[in-house]
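User: My collaborator sent over this chain with a note saying "see what the structure looks like." That's all I know about it. Can you take a look?
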Amino acid sequence: MTGGSVVESNPTVGAVIVNYRSEEETHRLTAELYEGVDELVIVDNSSPSATLDQLARSTERVSYLESDGNVGYAAGNNLGIQHLSEECDCYFIINPDTNLPDIEVVSRLARKILVNPEVGILAPAVGDDPPSQQHRDTAAVRLMHRFGYLPSVGSRDDELVPRTQVVGCSMMISADMIEDIGLLDPSFFLYVEEIEYCFRAREHGYQVAFDPESVVEHNHEETGFVHTNPYQVYYRTRNLFQLARRRFSGVGQLLFLSSVGILLYVITRNQEWTLLKPWFEGFVDGVLGRTGRTRYLTD
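Assistant: Without extra context I'll predict from the sequence alone. Here is the result:
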């Protein structure tokens, strides 16, 4: 990767869509993204898709890449980024269940991340919540800021809003930052990997921010600590332990792990009794240090 060492008015953007049993959404998103990026790669994490392969073969600047089964969100995006041209100045990773109401979102994010080299990860706003509610810290992270276990996000004198972490459904990532800190960590498999990436970026001196002017819609059944599927609860619980063990120690680690207790509280408050088993499994596997694809989504 050469990255954007020279600020350009029209930066070169590569986009990655990771498909896992979401062909219809992937087709739709490809059409939405096509005019806004220079290259686009579809990484297929499920069974090989003849229709997606044909879409790539018949569409200029779109390529189709089969992964070795369901390798997870982080590994799938890493494969896509590595497949794209090294001439890309930045990379836009986006979930298939995300809508782009305005194609200018992509070019706007790309321009802003290129003219602000201190920003390594730039996300759009998600939905129509006001800026103060966008990409908010969890209660655990707020406590860690309060007691000095996480550095302040600081402030800016432009429209970009610094954050500790951003929602991973769509992120513009600087190629220069990737050269510096590497790609997403595939050991998480699913969930929390974007939090780790934001923490790692900030640890290396980069800012993480979102742009209120750029808005996407995320049609996901899970928001924050509201979960509906066992695999969501399992991987989030397990991976919070992994991140806590890797990034913090002592009191800071305990403060971060309070998120695991909050998740249990939400499950019991909502009387989602079927989610207690995956929470407990995630707790046990998190304590034991298990990583990668385990227990759920193993087919």
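A starting point for your reply to your collaborator: Residues 250-269 form the longest helix (20 residues).
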